[in-house]
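Z., the sequence and structure:
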Amino acid sequence: MVKQAACETPGEKTGHSAGGRLPSSEMQRDLGVLAHESQKFPSVTLLLAVFSTGIGGTFQYGYNISIINAPSMHVQKFINETWEIRYSSDLDRGLLRLLWSIIVSTFTLGGFLGAWLGGLLAVRFGRKRTLLLINILVLAGSALMGASNPAGVFELLIVGRFLVGLHSGVGLCVQPMYLGEIAPKALRGTISMGTSVFITAGILIGQVMGQRELLGGEEYWPILLSSSCIPAILQLLLLPWFPESPRYLFIDKREEMKALHALRRFHDANSYVSELEDLEKECAEIQVQQSKRLCGLLSDHSTRWQLITVIIMNMAQQLSGINAILSDYYYHSTVDLEKGEYGQAVQNPIYFYATYVFNQAGIAEAYIPYVTMGTGACECVSALCCGLLIERLGRRALILGGYSLMALWCAVMTITLTYQASYFWVPYMTMTCLFAFILSFGLGPGGVTNTVTGELFTQSTRPAAYTIGSSMNWISFFFIGLIFPMIVEGLQQFCFIIFLVECLLVTLFIYIVLPETKNKSFLDIEKEFRARNFKSGITEAVNRNMLVSSC
């Protein structure tokens, strides 16, 4: 890994900028006060950088887990017809189910492997360059999926979905890292929310594009699956115009003047001085450390509780009952090859019950896809609201409130689903609870988790921390998709009791362990955890934390 070069203490380091030497520590402190007061809104450059990063980053994740639902019947029909032409025999029903499950699940496999690569690539190539390089995966995957139907090779869908999933795994790891590092301290939460905003925007746009009037028809599904190339091309055109992460340039690469130039572009006229002072302090603090590998982070007692917190928060995000963001789709209904009927894909727990609730409310089945777009819009609005509130209310208030409200809605939905057919107004109440659950998730854990993951670690440990957190997220993603059909079959509507208990336990854990991170430097947050990490008396880890970590 890249070794951190020794840094001089704040105020001692000098360099040449547009005005000569870098500001002294006294001047930085004076201007830092002004910066804190003036940097209330992000600069235009910063906002454009967020868009350029998100459109080819986490937007792709939301978009690709959304668009796979619309053409599910058409793709299964294509697989069956291709098999008959290739082997002159009918495709077994179980084998068709297996092939469709593989096409869907390879996205998750690719995402998991991508999460393990994300931290390594972010250190080796930098945050921005990694985001640009992985667009090769999306372009290749889109081309393969688009060519599958003309070529009559359904295996190309498996490879294409894997490559797109690999991109999403790396993107979910690197994009929040980049956004958190380019944002001023006072706006770090708002800027980091770009990750969740673009996920939900991808879900919503994927739902819109999958409508039968657009690209959801039988003849257009190859175009729908290959349309991921458009956001990738947009990012390749836009992102090169913006600088690399100032923290990566300053601490990892020791390119001080490039770092100063990046700070000035991303921040306003004064706030970059305050950010530069934080960079110098952090660089001096970790000057003898390397960027830690996974085994180094796992064995480091000085980051023990930060790591536990990140693992639990990322697992809870997927196991809460909504799978954070729309999960991949579980093969649920039957397949009748003789009649030409093919199974539908069923979404996560909340969306699984959404179709049932909409039917009970009297909405015709033909119109349910349009109503389902309302759930995507609800997620998108909640993510935007979270971005507006996160610097006012803080991280703790939003995530504690989000999980608490989710537990409440789980309890109410268990009751209303039990008496769904008893009173005419109960289905409407259940529908209201569904939307309230989605809003609560988006305002709390859906938006805050990625932000907190980056804030709990300093530069030397952040890439490995994102790798571990993202990996646990993908594992939980796959796990809930595997066991949910069995849970709902056995417990029916009472499955929400499990999610209720999980939300309450996570709320208790966060209340006890997680401090407020709003408007604090990464070093200040680390110091708050230090007393907890060494509470058991393992003081020798302080010295070990200053040594070179290696696997």
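The longest strand covers residues 330-331. Residues 517 and 525 are 6 Å apart (CA to CA).

Let me know what you think.
H.
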